[in-house]
Specification:
This protein is α/β, with parallel strands linked by helices. The chain has 9 helices and 4 strands, in the order αββαββααααααα. The protein starts with 6 loop residues before the first helix and ends with a helix.
């Protein structure tokens, strides 16, 4: 019943956070442009032609040999996240391959169920490899979420179960700092996740799946009309 008591707060923040998500998406686009514009017409690596060091299978993890990243460590981090989510009851389907997105240069390649493109070299240097894997392992049934409270709640639950809570919340605070209601949104998702964490594993897993679907509810409603 305690979870139901948050429904009003959830609804109140949906409009606020929807506006935030548009602004954040624009900020991300501008940041990416600021990075790649200095590359001129030559990316740091020849697109798609870097010699790769690959290890394992399902997932097979590949990093460019010249980048200095440890492919075995990158795979160990990925496997640790996937196993932790599965142990928590989440539905997890490992991709066939996880590859370093640095080889794409300035060209964006979207991830798919078969291959995940992640900044493996950079994230290994910054000790954020597991958080990067988590962002792909949490699979929403839509391309763009519309209920950001549900979406962020699902991500926080997953982060807690994989030891990435502090890094995830740090990123959320930085992302939402420009908004007056940012702290309130973080407080709401923390409260929702803290409450469900007291429930049995099966209940938590069901709640998590429900949050993934709820984050995409408006998209599905529009597609049905």
């Amino acid at each position: 019943m305690a979870l139901l008591g948050l429904a009003a707060q959830h609804h109140r923040f949906r409009i606020v956070v929807a506006t935030m998500s548009c602004a954040v998406a624009l900020a991300g686009t501008l940041t990416s442009y600021a990075i790649v514009k200095d590359w001129d017409h030559t990316a740091p690596l020849s697109i798609g032609h870097a010699d790769m060091d690959c290890v394992g299978s399902a997932p097979r993890v590949c990093v460019p040999e010249a980048g200095g990243a440890d492919a075995a460590q990158a795979r160990a981090d990925a496997v640790a996240v996937l196993r932790a989510l599965a142990a928590a009851g989440a539905r997890v389907t490992p991709p066939r391959t996880i590859s370093d997105s640095v080889i794409n240069g300035a060209y964006f390649r979207p991830s798919s169920s078969e291959i995940w493109w992640l900044p493996l070299t950079t994230s290994q240097r910054d000790a954020t490899s597991r958080l990067q894997v988590l962002t792909q392992a949490v699979r929403f049934p839509c391309t763009v979420t519309t209920d950001e409270v549900a979406g962020r709640s699902a991500m926080l639950w997953a982060a807690k179960n994989t030891g990435q809570e502090k890094r995830f919340l740090k990123g959320q605070r930085e992302e939402l700092a420009q908004f007056e209601e940012g702290d309130d949104v973080i407080a709401v998702i923390k409260k929702r996740v803290a409450q469900v964490r007291h429930a049995p594993k099966a209940v938590q897993a069901s709640w998590y799946q429900g949050e993934l679907e709820r984050a995409c509810a408006d998209v599905r409603e529009e597609s049905d009309t």
